[in-house]
Structures
1.
Amino acid sequence: MTANPTAAVLVIGNEVLSGRTQDTNSNAIARFLAPLGVTLKEVRVVGDFEEAIVEALNALRARFDYVFTTGGIGPTHDDITADAVAKAFGVGIDFHPEALALLAARFADPNDFNSARRRMARIPDGASLIRNPVSAAPGFQIGNVFVLAGVPSIMRAMLEDIAPRLTRGRPVLSITVAAQVAEGAIAGPLAAIQARFPDIAIGSYPVYRSDGYGVQLVARGFEPAQVETVAAELTAMLQAAGGQPERLSP
Amino acid sequence: MTANPTAAVLVIGNEVLSGRTQDTNSNAIARFLAPLGVTLKEVRVVGDFEEAIVEALNALRARFDYVFTTGGIGPTHDDITADAVAKAFGVGIDFHPEALALLAARFADPNDFNSARRRMARIPDGASLIRNPVSAAPGFQIGNVFVLAGVPSIMRAMLEDIAPRLTRGRPVLSITVAAQVAEGAIAGPLAAIQARFPDIAIGSYPVYRSDGYGVQLVARGFEPAQVETVAAELTAMLQAAGGQPERLSP
């Protein structure tokens, strides 16, 4: 299951590490990539520190086909992502004419288009812009790195401009079967099914709720027929263990 | 603000990278560590692959004072964290008498205490157990690494057993001031305040909602009086920009 293009997400922001903000961007990117057949292999979260950003970015971009960063491209002093990305790539950074024009169009009153907002038009040399239909200030792509906003609604909107730029792989199909059976009771037969279908990744996720415990078994793979076969085996196995398995929508 | 003990979280699980599961454990750990004065510096998410776990764990445990892993310590074939941690530390792994006793007490019927559940008592050599008051199967500590469950309710319960083991630092105090002012309009004066208070980390977070836009400014630091002073300056600055600032509960 690894011939697909690979990707990593680098979340940039003190607010995530302090616990103030629950990151949801990496989950949104994971869900965006799955149907495109791009496999998310790693997520990292670092703070607003240039050294940490540069080091993480260089590690990830060397290892994976694509890297998506989120956060730190706004107008304030703590927005240092563009400079850190330029440093990671060893290139200069300057005002980008098209980015300036996009921002100037948004701020009709020249008094509103102050130096802080102009700063959002500083783009590393050689990068191409990523369209921001929400608040104009663009993201950018440099090499295999896509630099996106941290505000979730803007980040998601930027993904639409990225999809056509990605080499796609085979989407992974997934079927989930759930039952009120203890994970530990079916671990043996589950491992036996996994051993017979090495091309299917079977995940087992226990559920603890006020109405009792249960398990969700997830079969993931490229071949629809094979995923269906495994789902049927999982269903039969859960039934044999005394459960009333049901298939969950993915 | 970096004399405090440092920490990283390593989230282990294909379900997070596939987008199926929104990780909330790293946020819970961030909120657990903040009042203890332990600074979370990095989060990584990797899949259920031994090589990826070993490499990430060795990188993080060498760099930070504490590492917290979540996920992969259950009874099924995809639970490979304990073995990966043993490999990362270069130690053996075997059944731990106390862990076996804890699990045996939970599964009164010997037929229920099958080999898969016994597997949860396999603990790397030299590790100490972390109590699991929810479902008995313990986590463990080895060196500066705390290996926790992935199920959020169990993970959080395990944190209670960890708190007394951590060297504490100075807790960071945080005050948030919000107003319906555009971030770009106050970036200049905001940077001037930041420049005058280098010991306070000021974060600026734009808000986009159906009822308009706004900004939340967060002042974080060790000295209560200084954080209050900065919060007062931020409030005055937002007022001068035409906003009606309000202090948010942290």
2.
Amino acid sequence: MRLYTTPASPWVRRVVVSILELGLRDRFEFVPTRWPHDWATRTVAHGGSFAADTPVQRIPALVTPDVTLVESHAICDFINAELGGYRLLAREGAARWRGLADISIANAVIEAQILRRAELLRTADRSADFIAKMRERQLRCLAALEPRVGGFGPAFDLAQITTAVACGYQDWRYPEDDWRTGAPALAAWYDRVAGRPSMTATRPAETPQS
Amino acid sequence: MRLYTTPASPWVRRVVVSILELGLRDRFEFVPTRWPHDWATRTVAHGGSFAADTPVQRIPALVTPDVTLVESHAICDFINAELGGYRLLAREGAARWRGLADISIANAVIEAQILRRAELLRTADRSADFIAKMRERQLRCLAALEPRVGGFGPAFDLAQITTAVACGYQDWRYPEDDWRTGAPALAAWYDRVAGRPSMTATRPAETPQS
């Protein structure tokens, strides 16, 4: 199976940490992609198999012999169910919905982080208001995750993975937000899980532009 | 269960059509929300239960006695599995991944539609390049759905619902794109399903601003 990646994307990281936590690294070929900074406002021309494999032309994208999945929600669902024996998220019932409740908030953090990043990459038409709105959403949702940390179980599951990736991206791109002050229990939890091999192996780094 | 809605949102429509197709309307209280146009660049102050119920402060949001889900992916998963007996998407296996492959492309269309809408609502700092990028993604992904229509089964399932909602929003907000020319089989399919009661009951309309 072919997974298109970048080292900067939290959506990619969420998938890769899932793969590493499940011990499935040897099942995947990771294919790095390159993104000039004008990706924020222009369609990037991709060569090779990427353009043919995914009409969305975003990462992550997973190509299996039978199917191509072009968003991290679907990819994580596939990896958890088809390859992971539901070890990262329960197949059904209350445990699944509790996990998805956490995940849906953590996803909202990541989405705001990426939209803000794209706005910051604009060389024209950059909206300070939009950036402020995204920062407010990030901090509001991180604060909402704060009381949920106490409910996290012993397993580093998809809810915890997604939350940890959101925290890690926040530290990397937006240290000036000082998110830890508004979510100290979350920060303490994150500092513990950030040392896991799956997390240290996937520390964010700038994506090659060319 | 309480579902926060607007009549304009394709993410809401996807959830409501799922509810109607499953015959579950009487299980939900639909709570309309209001959005002044500056939602595109400012955090909207919401009163009532909405702000307390969801830290993301976006629609759709579903509040059940046990859990709150704040994105349509999780909400559709919950409705399909917990209330719908997996009639909209298979629980597991190849049928689930084929469905999610279609869904992940249709979701990308909707996401681009909404990001473009938010950009068009800006009264300053509006990027023509960003708008063009989103239009290109919409049309590229709709064209990618074109050959997939032949694989649609007899049931109006979540893949078809999501695809139809994307087509409906495209007609409503972006008729100038003329998407039908690049996807004639998709358009013919959409014109058939657009007459279903679940679709006619949820035709998009402007969201009240106040």
